[in-house]
Write a structure and sequence with these properties.
The protein contains ten helices and ten strands. The two termini are 26 Å apart. Helix 7 runs parallel beside helix 8. The longest helix has 17 residues. It is an alpha/beta fold.
Length: 254
């Protein structure tokens, strides 16, 4: 990235100690940083002297209509400027927000908590107009059992950026907008099951090469043979332990 000082505007709905910490770290990293907590109609006026916007989202915001309305307004305003914006929020909020407002998927997303060794290269890539590539690999968990999906996410979130969807078609919609490095896909789901999802993914050029690991609750020989006949990149029994799952993923996620 060019050595000249880059100007970043952090957009927040409510200033917090965490935002203050991000602002301080960015300043220490030689970025010129401004925080905007309201008057988001100023975004277009500020864009002339801004290299990148960062939107720090409040927690559990996907079910708050007033927050969603503000997020859509902010995204629309930034798009009009032609500038890029990194969104930082809870991993579980992202797929829900994208479902409700597709404009959100137009901007790169980072899961929080965020560290500077992840944020800084993402900022540099976003300013240069490149695809944001962060330190942790991204895994999408697809399972119609929210409790199980949440448990798996808790198991692996320290090693991987994780997102969760609970239906097959949600996975297709999410993946067409959000690049991932691997998919953990429930084999048995209602309406659109795992094999159907895998087939649809393989038919789309944008998703055809994403590694897919089936999650299955049945470990009999016949069941495993049915799973592997679909030629996924592997399978994991739902009865596995956290340690075994992490060991397995480390051998698969490149």
């Amino acid at each position: 990235m060019n050595e000249e000082i880059k100007n970043i505007v952090i957009l927040v709905l409510q200033y917090s100690v965490v935002v203050k910490g991000i602002e301080r770290k960015l300043n220490d990293a030689k970025f010129q940083t401004t925080v905007l907590t309201d008057s988001f109609d100023r975004i277009r006026d500020m864009s002339g002297t801004t290299d990148l916007f960062i939107l720090y989202l409040p927690g559990d915001c996907s079910n708050k209509a007033d927050v969603l309305e503000k997020l859509v307004y902010i995204c629309d305003q930034v798009k009009r400027t032609g500038r890029n914006m990194i969104m930082i929020g809870e991993a579980n909020d992202h797929p829900e927000l994208v479902k409700k407002a597709h404009v959100i998927s137009d901007f790169p997303w980072l899961d929080r908590p965020i560290e500077m060794d992840v944020l800084r290269p993402a900022i540099e890539a976003a300013i240069e107009g490149k695809t944001v590539s962060v330190g942790k690999k991204r895994i999408l968990i697809v399972d119609d059992d929210p409790s199980y999906a949440k448990m798996v996410r808790e198991w692996i979130k320290s090693d991987y950026q994780t997102s969760v969807v609970t239906a097959g078609m949600q996975a297709i919609t999410f993946l067409l907008k959000n690049p991932v490095d691997m998919i953990l896909l429930d084999y048995e789901m209602p309406v659109v099951d795992g094999p159907q999802v895998l087939q649809m993914l393989r038919q789309e050029p944008a998703t055809a090469k994403i590694p897919v690991i089936f999650l299955t609750g049945v470990g009999t020989k016949d069941a495993v043979e049915r799973v592997m006949a679909l030629k996924p990149d592997g399978y994991v029994l739902k009865s596995t332990t956290r340690e075994n799952l992490l060991k397995y993923l480390r051998g698969k996620v490149r």
